[in-house]
Amino acid sequence: MCHRSGSIIFGLAVLVTLGCNSQPSVDSLQKEYDQARQQYGKDCGDQFMKAKPEFDQKCKDEEAKMNEAYKRLQAAKTTGK
To answer: Given Cys at both, which of 15, 31, 59, 77 links 44, Cβ 3.0 to 4.6 Å?
Structure first.
């Protein structure tokens, strides 16, 4: 009987661990956003400083990636994950 309950507890621990790891953590999403923001600033900062900025497609794509990372981060923060 003891062995069986130990197996059940182990199985539950594995499920909980897998469940926790299936969603990105706030820390990993924050890191993803920070990296996207840094890359965008590095690649597109000079275009942004022009009086009338005109972004090329690469910068538009990087901006979309950065904004999506930010949305995912904010969603994770509001759900507490």
So the answer is: 59
pLDDT at position 59 over 50:
yes
Mapped onto helix, strand or coil, the DSSP state of residue 11 is helix
Q: Compute the chain's Rg from CA coordinates.
A: 21
Q: What pLDDT shows up at residue 32?
A: 94
Rounded Cα distance, 57 and 41, in Å: 15
In the DSSP assignment, the letter for residue 24 is -
Indicate whether 62 belongs to any domain.
yes
pTM: 0.52
Question: 52 in a domain, yes or no?
Answer: yes
Domain extent, residue 41, equals 24-79
Instruction: Tell me 51's DSSP state.
Output: S
- Return the HEC string of 28-53: HHHHHHHHHHHHHHHHHHHHHCCCCC
